[in-house]
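BUG: 3D viewer hangs when loading the predicted structure for this chain

Environment: internal workstation, default settings.
Expected: structure renders.
Actual: progress bar stalls at 90%.

Input used:
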Amino acid sequence: MKKIVMVTGARRGLGLAICQQLVADGYKVLAVARSDSPELNGLCDGESVCFECFDLANTEKIHAWVVELSKRHGRIYGLVNNAAIGADGVLATMHEHDIAQSLLVNLQSPIVLTKYVSRSMLLGGGGRIINISSIIGSTGFSGLSVYAATKAGLIGFTKSLSRELGKANITVNCIAPGYMDTDMTKGIAPDKLVSIKRRSPSGKLATVGSVASSVSFLLSEGGDMINGATITVDAGSTA
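Structure tokens produced before the viewer hung:
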């Protein structure tokens, strides 16, 4: 039987790359997103990858949804909390609705989802939880204060939860990617992007593939002694 891994925010970018990597690793992937995409459709075959349409902002429905998923697919071994929104703007002029949505989708939703998926792991005798944070959670970036707060919150959540679940053979870790060539970075001014690349010893941005490989390792047997850690994948820009 293939181990089951849930990946949120699977429609494109990093989430899609993680799904592709995990399929190659031999997992059964539950690809969660609010809507599908041609790229995700091309990956889904109903067996190795199953698209699960769900809006994680509906936190009150997460419990029943996870129960239903477990009945259809079996116990979940791995959870990759990748879904996030990157609302940017100066805090003083940011609408309160945008602040609330960022806190809901980027922090509250993964916490609630982890609460219920971890029950499946406890029944299964083990599991892996991987939270996708960001280097911005520790370095900061002008215009991304709310986003940074949510990503820093995931790091704190990871550290404490790893202590709660460690004795049950469940590891909880965080990956903090640097700037990558995704839709989130396309809105960055070209001069800022050049500056970001210069900070890296290699003069490059991190890739979604390199982050996906890190997720793969944490899910593998070789990652069983890594718990409560934050792994930075940023091409050395914060070195």
